Structure formats: C-alpha cells, structure tokens
Amino acid sequence: MLHLVNKSPFERGAFESCLNMARKGSAILLIEDGVYAALKNTPFEDKVSAAVKDIRICVLGPDLAARGVDQVIEGVEVVDYGGFVDLTVDHTPVQSWL
Amino acid sequence: MLHLVNKSPFERGAFESCLNMARKGSAILLIEDGVYAALKNTPFEDKVSAAVKDIRICVLGPDLAARGVDQVIEGVEVVDYGGFVDLTVDHTPVQSWL
Amino acid sequence: MSEEIQTEYETEGVEKKFMFLNRKAPYGTIYALEMLETVLISAAFDQDVTLVFMDDGVYQLKKGCDTKAVNMKNFSATYKALGDYDISRLFVEKESMDARGLTIDDLVEVIFEDEDDDWAEKPAVHVKSRDEIARLMEEQDVIISA
Amino acid sequence: MSEEIQTEYETEGVEKKFMFLNRKAPYGTIYALEMLETVLISAAFDQDVTLVFMDDGVYQLKKGCDTKAVNMKNFSATYKALGDYDISRLFVEKESMDARGLTIDDLVEVIFEDEDDDWAEKPAVHVKSRDEIARLMEEQDVIISA
Amino acid sequence: MKYGILINEGPFTHQASDTAYHFTKAAIEKGHRVMRVFFYHDGVYNANALSEPQSDDRNIVKLWGDLAKEHKIDLVVCVAAGLRRGIKDQVLAEGFRISGLGQLTEIGMAADRLITFGD
Amino acid sequence: MKYGILINEGPFTHQASDTAYHFTKAAIEKGHRVMRVFFYHDGVYNANALSEPQSDDRNIVKLWGDLAKEHKIDLVVCVAAGLRRGIKDQVLAEGFRISGLGQLTEIGMAADRLITFGD
Fold it and tell me: Is CATH 3.40.1260.10 correct for E2-117?
C-alpha cells in the first residue's frame, strides 16, 4: 500500500503514526508540509534512515522546491507529480495521514 | 500573561511549545481539543503536575463535558466561559497557541 | 455539460472493502461528524465496511458526551445507531487507548445483530492491536480518512 | 444599522507593542502569507512591531523558495521588503532553528535603515533564545498569531 | 474592559467560532464591552448568508448577526481574505460589514485585550 | 487506471486542492482517467464562483472548472457539506454540480483508486 503524509513531523503526529503502521514492502510519499520529514539534520533523520531499508520512501520535488529545501536523507527518492501518479498505480490502497 | 491552548497534546506540538514558553506567574487555559492535556493517565500528566506549581492551569468545563471527560489532574482548575473572561481580565497579553 | 460528462457509473454487484479511518478528536473539528455521515451513506451500498479509530480518533467513541454548554450537535448517539445499519466492525487501536488511559468500558456500546448467527446481538466495538490494524489496512480497496 | 454600531475608534497617539507570532510552515497553509499581509498593514499604524518565528514558523524565512512547480504565489520576497516598512525586529527562536538544522545563513536577509544611527543599514533578522522570546512575549500589549 | 475578538476559522469545521461566540456572550454578561469581532483567514466564511445548517444544529452565522444586533458589536469581514474566498457583498449576512485589515490593527490599538480564536 | 479524487479542504487556506489539481493533471497526462473529483468538508469552498484571488495568484476555482471541461471530469460538491457552509446553486462555479454523499461511495466502488487530499 501507499501512505501519503502531508504534515510536518515537528507539528503533528501523522508521520510518526504512519511510520508505526507502515509495513515492509509498502511505500510512503511525503508531500506538502510532510516534506520536512525527508530532510537531513532533524530529530527524525535516524528513524527515516532506518525505515528506508524496508519501506520505499519518496518525497515530492515541487514541494521541496517551494520550501527552499533540498538536503534529502540518503535513500529517500525525489519524485514529481508524474512519479506521484506512478506510485498510486504501483500500490493499493492509498491512505492519506491527514 | 495568559496562554490559550486549543489543540490536543497528542496530535500537535502547541501544548508543549506553550509549556516551554510559559513563565512563572502566568496562566494557561486549555480549551476545545486542548482539554485532553488536563486529564489524568496520559503521558502529559507528570509535566502538567509539575507545571501547576508555578503556573495557574485552567481547563474549560463546557469543553470537558462535550468530550465526556472529567478526570482532571489535581491542581488544574475547571472554569466556565465566565471564568475564561475573568482570566483575560487578570492577565495580559493573551497568546493563542494555534 | 451534463450530456458530455459521465455522472453515473455502473457499480452493480461491486463489493469492495472500505475502511473509514478516524484519527481526530470529536467537536474540536467537524471531521468526526461528517465522516459519520459518509459511513451511514456507504452502509446503503452494501459494501464491506470497517471503521478504525486510532490516535485522537479513539476519543470519538468516548461515552458520556454532553454538548449542551457548547451548543453543538451531539452525535455520539449516531455511533450507537451504526449497528442498525449492519455495521459490525468498529476497531479501536489498543496502543492509542493505552496512551490515553482508556479502556473499552469508557466507550459507547454499539450492538449489531449477526445474521450469520441467528440474529444474535453482539458488540461491534473491538480493541485491536496496531499490528492487526496495519495488516487489515493493507487488505482494503478504499481507505477514507479525514 | 451602521448608525447605531460604532465602527471607528479613536487611536490617535496610541503606540502599542504588537507581536506577530509565526509558528506554521509556509505554503502548506495560507497562514504565513496572510499574517504577512497583517504585518504590512500594521506597519502603517506606527506601532512597535516585533515578528517572532518559532517551531515550524522558522521555515517561513528559509531562502531559495521556488514555487513555480506548485504554481503558488511566492511570498518570500515580501519578508525582504519588511525592512522598507521600518520593521526592524524579526526574531527567530534558536531552539527551533537547531531542531531543524538551520542557521541564520539559511534564512532570507532583511535589511532596515536605522533612523537612530544615521540611517545605517542593519540586519533585521536575529536569532534569540527561547528564554529571551518568552520574556519579550510577556511585555507585549497585543499578540497576533495564526 | 474593552475587547477585540479575532476569528481565524470558518463555522462548523473548527470550534473556533463557537468558542469565540460563547466568550463574547460571557464577556458582555459580565459587563464588559466587545468592540469588534474581526473575521480573518477562513473566518470570513462565518459571514456567508447562504449557510443553512441542519435543523437540529446551531446556526452560527445567524447567532453572530443576532448577538451583534442586540449588543451593538461591529462585525468586520476582511476584504482581502474575503475576496480570495468569495465572501463578498452578494452573500454577506445581516450584521456584518466588509472592510480592510487595518480594522484589525485599529482594534488591537483601541481595545484592552485582543483575543484570537483559530486552528 | 481509473481514479476518484476526494478533496477535504477549501482553496488557498490549505494546499490540498492545489496538490489534488497537479495530481489530476499528471494522471491525465499519463493516460489515466479521472472519473470524478468529490468535494467534501471545507472542500466545497473550491466551487465558490465568487472567489476572486489576487491577480498574481492562481485562480483555483477556475483552474478546476477549466480542467474538468477539457477532460470531461465530473466535479461533485457534497450537498450536505455545502448547505451548512453556504455553497449552493446561487454561487456554484461553472463545471461543478451538487449531489449527495453517495457519489463518493459510488466512485470508491467504480474507480481503481480513491486518493484523498486534506488537512
């Protein structure tokens, strides 16, 4: 399945809830304010680095650019809107962690 | 000064940010989904119990009732809308932790 | 316009697994109430419906809500009515309950009649582990969250 | 109705301390942009204005924002213009910066001309400790947050 | 004491407008004066005359209009926030007026307290 | 692949509607079909014809209407959510129609994927 996270991991619990729930073989796409979870040098970096071994973690490039950030944790893939669509083709169901 | 917190401490960082910022002699009023921070048997109980020594912590009764909860931590005062008004009379400025 | 754009779809015989995932507290925002409206409608479509309550969503089922003083519509009773709509699975995440000091006794009772068991009355609310819910989630066709 | 209800208030000579407290990330929601509109208006009223950026609000000042691909209005440049409106205090909480791995070099530069110092150009963005901001907050007359 | 109220969220979706309403009523009952309620961000939706809640629910738009009429409260909808959200004169409910953001600063200056309700 | 889209938040205030729009465009460009976009909760505000954003900003209501016209997408505003928020026929933008919540369940049944955008 595909998990969508659009909340900052600093402000809300959505990303943590998602990480707790996501199982091996599933994928997570970070969008909107969720992209901050993909960045280096935050308290979430270790968790994300550990998670990418079992889970495909992607981040939406246009949302990174809008926020002026680009230091993405190793193993996290940057995708565009087309890549977002492809992820929803490859995975089902899709759960938005609102 | 008076701090207003209307967010669940489980979902958002607002209550924690407020506790970090609130200084001795100030007051905190928990309203709306913020009232969950006033309850016993949560991970926030110890922090709140420690804080009430220096800070007056109140919780809005109508919002507790709406959510069917009433096990309020010792030292936390339950107030109604009139008590809310009184708090804003006694304290200035008022900051809403949205 | 309506002649050109398709506004009806053939769904005869389709039965999918729908999960309604509730993660938000009631009353502070409208999501819990409006999600419930979605659930009630979907019951009419004979789909395989599961409701999940996790994180602050577990507070939605807290019993004893009294909204008189806030002058908001009290929708707690609607959860109780879900059993009458043949909704038999309201799963509450154990980890979220524990973190909030809640037990199943704190929650509203929802009863449904089990047609596979001579219409015996059974409880619809069940506590499930995070792991069970994670597995169930992957089996769904549609997850609606708010 | 407008004859009965007072719609204008005497504010001649009033100078109050206004703090605009920004705790939310930009672009995911509109609060940052609309707060900035409030700040710009208030500058015209000659009040004692301080902007504070803490929690995810520090991301509002991140430089290098490019909103072309999301097709949203890029308002980063507006922060830079604040100096021209005589806003000389943009305080960024150190603890929030540290948690996000940010330093002042990552932030947009805002320059104002100090009328008390022969109009010398000075930076308006300063990193302040949580404690300094907490003290400053208590001295305010009005705090506007969103 | 003289109050200004700032509401940042729309009706029903967030409790902000409800809480602000109960606060305003309580303040008036205690003899204080609420000079102005300023509706900003999604708060402008509180002035939508077309709002038609279910019969067993509260009518927030009407509650504000009635309270304002009874106690002479100035209900101001921000013109800029209203324009982008489509809250304009055509749909403005009774008791509200549309004006600029300066009205928020003004009430911050004139009132003893400015209290914000939002999300 | 056949898609249904659910939008839970209003325009401008949250990025949800923007992201859903870019997703929908990208899906169509890749040859997929977007059968219906369902506007629920504050999402109904995306259909407000009175919305008038600043000239240097995007016009979300119009963007959706134009995209729907070009690619024959069914834009459905929830009647119940719209009523309480005052989004009714009088202000309904071109390209949108108002209907019941059953249209959401229906598209969940008919589409291969239902993707939710919200807050």
Answer: yes
